[in-house]
Amino acid sequence: ASAYVHKDAAFEELKLALDAVTKDRYYISPTVMKPVISGYLQLTPANGAMASYNKLTTREKEVFHLLAVGRRRKEIAETLRISPKTVDRHRTNLLEKLNLCQEAEIAEFAKLIG
Predict the structure, then answer these.
(1) CB-based contacts of 48: which residues, under 8 Å, 6+ apart?
(2) Cα 69 to Cα 107: distance, rounded to the nearest angstrom
(3) What pLDDT is stored for residue 44 in this prediction?
(4) SS3 label, residue 30
(5) % the chain with pLDDT above 70
(6) pLDDT for position 32
(7) Which residue from 102, 113, 114 is spatially nearest to 67, judged by alpha carbons?
(8) Which pTM value belongs to this model?
(9) Backbone angles phi, psi at 3, to 5 degrees
(10) Under 8 Å between Cβ of 75 and 66
(11) Any residues with CB less than 8 A from the CB of 13 and at least 6 apart, and which?
């Protein structure tokens, strides 16, 4: 849906919603905006992020934290005394478990979990 208009909304608000949709924008009635945003904020950051993070192994968490602070695979391998290929495997596993597409998202994810 591109727009949500409360059933008690005035015709003027309906016109605003239609105008927004025709301009390829979204519209949500102000009367429902706050509950929708509050619900979204409760669902997003820590709840799902922490649950996903807790599925990582101890070694994956170590690799995660080193990646989050910008360490390169060779540095991580030396720090953890594992091969760069093993770092790559852990990186692939943690991206999958955290439902991330690329390494750049790791730092943002780290901010969510604190």
Answers:
(1) none
(2) 7
(3) 52
(4) helix
(5) 86
(6) 75
(7) 102
(8) 0.59
(9) -150, 150
(10) yes
(11) 5, 6, 29
